[in-house]
Please model this.
Amino acid sequence: MDKGALLQLRKFLAPEFIFGAGARHLAGRYAHNLGARKAVVVTDPGVVRAGWVKDVTDSLENLGIAFAIFPEVSPNPRGEEVEAGTEVFRSEECNVLIGVGGGSPMDCAKGIGILSTNRRFLRDFEGVDRVEAPMPPLICVPTTSGTSADVSQFVIILDQREKIKYAIISKSVVPDVSLIDPETLATLSAEMTACTGIDALAHAIEAFVSSAHAGITDLHALEAIRLLRPNLLPCLADPANPELRTRLMMGSLQAGLAFSNACLGATHAMAHSLGGLLDLPHGECNALLLPHVIGYNFTAADDRYKAVGEALGLDLRGLDGPRASAAILEDLEVLRLEAGLEGSLRTRGVGRSDIPYLARNALQDPCVITNPRRPGQRDLEVIFEDAF
Model:
């Protein structure tokens, strides 16, 4: 094949996944199917308190599978936590990983898997396709409707010393099985529901306009937008409604299948930089930046953004580019504010002197490569200034 034909090829990769109420109780069965002798359950204190970890460990006990628990994952997982978890995995002689929680425990579990078979520093794997040896089997049980780490090729780790987040992207880190159970959203706070819901929406929008988009990823991205936009605010108003929670979880899954295969864009590159500097929730960073990035990108992908607007539920008939862009940005800003994510970068503690540093780090993030418009340092600085 010539180079032009090769560049038109697209791959699609996803784990086996089971979606529906009670899926978490299948962890033991799938661990058994994967040959588990002893599993390490990677999670955080909040998920333990919520009871979801016990449901998973009960399912292991029912099948006679031994386990250890590593519950020391921060909201943004640190490299040191991955190293500590790897030590538990090795010292306890485990051979299967189970990540239970939001993106942080699942990313930490992926990091543990990388280090357990690739005996180097975690930072050595930063970038695309640098994980050489396969990981041990990994089962994920997501408990938020946003990050989609349970179906993705991404690992995001915080380096506290350098105050940056870095990305490891590899098909090697796609979980073997994801048990996607909407019941686990019952204990999710309003703030986390808002943050993760808008994170998922950003996944879908950026995947749809990505320069690596394809027909199959477009289907997932648009369906995710159609599920997330009309259901997020009603879910915040009626958090105990299982049907609304199920729609958000399905939207998150669809968005994950889209972005894992089409990659993302400048919003996520900038959010990683911002989250690395201030250790902020990732979804909150996306919420603050997404409209400003769309404003920058719009002319480079106007037809695609108009399709996004229609999926958001907007009537854009007869509107030229500037008016269509304004309508989309207004809708996303209304969503952010009504979801309770008020304020700006300045109110989060960003100083104007931080902006060149933030832009410089974002420019090095692999997500920026598939942004529909290729930005330079000053372009990203201006976007950060607009969000200031």
